[in-house]
């Protein structure tokens, strides 16, 4: 028997980070919980490093958070903790790439957790290698440690700031030394990073859902181009606007709001759940000619938008598809000679709801188009009389260079097919994507001009497409 991979037709977030500074709390246990809350941001590896002021204790491996730490957290003693969860593209799933990375330099121990992707890492790595630097991993993030080690600035924050001004691309990075956490975000703010306060210390992490789980109070988001230094549990972290150059506009990843982030998180002031409901409402206004009896979602990620659609259109939202919550990524291939529709492993149509009904099916995105047609067929097999597919993001046509695994451009169905061709391919009665204007209007707090939409419109805010065309993508694995 061989294993069969369940191919979910989604973009993949590549990492989540968590850091905690507290003399009174169990930092390893809180980091474990924090990573557990961030598990959706990366399911292939997890790691925790804890500093006791002299030594750093490390535990990391391939697997889910609960698998990696199933034997407990013993030995992870100290007062500063750093954690990381990672999704990686095939080929980079190696134990030596698991973060947090840990090294020893002239200033003591140093650990790093990174969410994002460095677009100039290949060039930097080449330069550093020429100067005699050695690398122990194939991830882009390692150049940051080399740049810090190489810097001749006087203090660690200055050395980190120099490194942060040398790297390009998307980064929300946590650096842990023996005595402090330094957290910084790229000048565009592609990837999220927020600060929380526990009774006895500080937490800095990718999403507010991790703050909620450890009982930390959300304080604020780290600003694009900002660095904070946490070295005292009693005092506010120091803040430095480290970036030498700030762009005219920020470029927060819109896909965090469409799909990646957990719906209970608030990111840069914007509620993920409310933004998704708004996307559904707008999509309903944009498709008001559809005649349907019920609105259903592709669970779970399509649900808030489907609820919004139903509210706006005055059509009842129902759970027409049921998800098997225990589905993993890999399955044993059935021994009998039968063709298994892998989508059925994960989803089943609720015949009692959809039979004889015209259905609006809301999903957040179509990436390769490998599953949408199978889900449409599930609904037809269960007796749906019509299936109208409504997508709460515009067509994904371009690769992401900012820490999201989008596959090759040629694998993106919208890069080579028109909307009508995609409709025919998935055999839907109609297919509708939210417009760019609609997506922009779904934000209530953020300025729509401060977002990245490059995977839809190829407008890479920092010109990363040119950088990547020069060949950095395949020289080593990217993205953390
Ligand atoms: S290209 Fe798309 S997925 Fe990547 S950061 Fe921009 S909006 Fe997000």
Set down the secondary structure blueprint:
Elements: E1 3-5, E2 12-13, E3 15-22, H1 27-37, E4 45-51, E5 56-62, H2 65-68, E6 80-86, E7 101-105, E8 108-118, H3 121-130, H4 142-150, H5 156-166, E9 169-176, E10 181-185, E11 194-198, E12 201-205, H6 208-214, E13 217-221, E14 226-230, E15 238-241, E16 252-253, H7 254-260, E17 266-267, E18 270-271, H8 272-286, E19 294-297, H9 303-313, E20 321-323, E21 330-332, H10 342-346, E22 347-349, H11 351-354, E23 358-363, H12 372-381, E24 386-391, E25 404-405, H13 413-416, H14 419-426, E26 430-433, H15 436-441, E27 451-452, H16 454-457, H17 464-469
Parallel strand pairs: 16-27, 19-23, 23-24, 24-26
Antiparallel strand pairs: 1-21, 2-25, 3-6, 3-12, 4-5, 4-6, 7-8, 8-9, 9-10, 10-14, 11-12, 11-13, 14-15, 17-18, 20-22
Helix pairs in contact: 1-6, 4-5, 7-8, 8-9
The chain binds iron/sulfur cluster.
Iron/sulfur cluster (SF4) binds next to helix 7 and helix 16.
What features would you describe in this structure?
- The protein has about 475 residues and is an alpha+beta fold.
- It folds into 2 domains: about 250 residues, 4-Layer Sandwich (Glutamine Phosphoribosylpyrophosphate, subunit 1, domain 1); about 190 residues, 3-Layer(aba) Sandwich (Rossmann fold), CATH 3.40.50.2020.
- Helix content is about 30%, strand content about 25%.
- It has 17 helices and 27 strands.
- The strands form 8 sheets. Strands 5-4-6-3-12-11-13 form a 7-stranded antiparallel sheet, with helices on one face.
- β17 and β18 form a beta hairpin.
- α4 packs across α5 and α8 packs across α9.
- The longest helix is centred in the middle third of the chain and has 15 residues.
- The radius of gyration is 23 Å and the shape is globular.
- The N terminus and C terminus are likely disordered.
- Iron/sulfur cluster binds next to α7 and α16.
């Amino acid at each position: 028997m061989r294993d069969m991979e369940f191919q979910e037709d989604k973009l993949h977030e590549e990492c989540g980070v968590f850091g905690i500074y507290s003399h009174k709390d169990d930092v390893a246990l809180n980091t474990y919980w924090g990573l557990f809350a961030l598990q959706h941001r990366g399911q292939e590896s997890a790691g925790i490093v804890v500093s006791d002021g002299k030594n750093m204790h490390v535990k990391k491996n391939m697997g889910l958070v609960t698998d990696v730490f199933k034997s407990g957290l013993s030995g992870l003693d100290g007062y500063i903790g750093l954690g990381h969860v990672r999704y990686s593209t095939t080929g980079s799933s190696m134990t030596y790439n698991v973060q947090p990375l840990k090294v020893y330099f002239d200033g003591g121990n140093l650990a790093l957790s990174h969410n994002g992707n460095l677009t100039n890492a290949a060039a930097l790595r080449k330069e550093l290698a020429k100067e005699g630097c050695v690398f122990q991993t194939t991830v882009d993030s390692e150049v940051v440690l080399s740049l810090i080690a190489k810097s001749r600035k006087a203090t660690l924050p200055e050395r980190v700031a120099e490194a942060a001004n040398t790297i390009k691309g998307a980064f929300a990075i946590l650096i842990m030394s023996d005595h402090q956490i330094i957290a910084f975000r790229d000048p565009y703010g592609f990837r999220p990073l927020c600060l929380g306060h526990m009774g006895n210390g500080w937490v800095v992490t990718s999403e507010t859902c991790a703050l909620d789980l450890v009982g930390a109070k959300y304080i604020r988001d780290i600003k694009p181009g900002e660095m904070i230094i946490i070295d005292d549990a009693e005092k506010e972290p120091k803040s430095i606007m480290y970036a030498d150059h700030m762009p005219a506009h920020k470029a927060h990843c819109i896909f965090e709001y469409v799909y990646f982030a957990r719906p209970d998180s608030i990111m840069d002031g914007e509620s993920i759940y409310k933004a998704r409901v708004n996307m559904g409402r707008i999509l309903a206004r944009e498709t008001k000619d559809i005649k349907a009896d019920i609105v259903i979602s592709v669970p779970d990620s399509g649900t808030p938008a489907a609820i919004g659609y139903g509210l706006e259109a005055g059509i009842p939202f129902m759970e027409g598809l049921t998800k098997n919550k225990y589905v993993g990524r890999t399955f044993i291939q059935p021994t009998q000679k039968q063709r298994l529709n892998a989508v059925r492993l994960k989803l089943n149509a609720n015949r009692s709801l959809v039979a004889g009904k015209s259905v609006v099916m809301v999903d957040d995105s179509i990436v390769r188009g490998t599953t949408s047609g199978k889900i449409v067929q599930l609904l037809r097999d269960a007796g749906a009389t019509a299936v109208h597919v409504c997508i709460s993001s515009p067509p994904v046509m371009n690769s992401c260079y900012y820490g999201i695994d989008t596959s090759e451009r040629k694998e993106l169905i919208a890069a080579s097919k028109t909307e009508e061709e995609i409709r025919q391919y998935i055999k839907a009665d109609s297919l509708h994507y939210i417009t760019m204007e609609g997506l922009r209007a779904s934000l209530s707090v953020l300025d729509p001009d401060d977002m990245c939409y490059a995977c839809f419109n190829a407008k890479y805010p920092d010109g990363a497409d040119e950088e990547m065309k020069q060949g950095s993508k395949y020289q080593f694995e990217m993205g953390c």
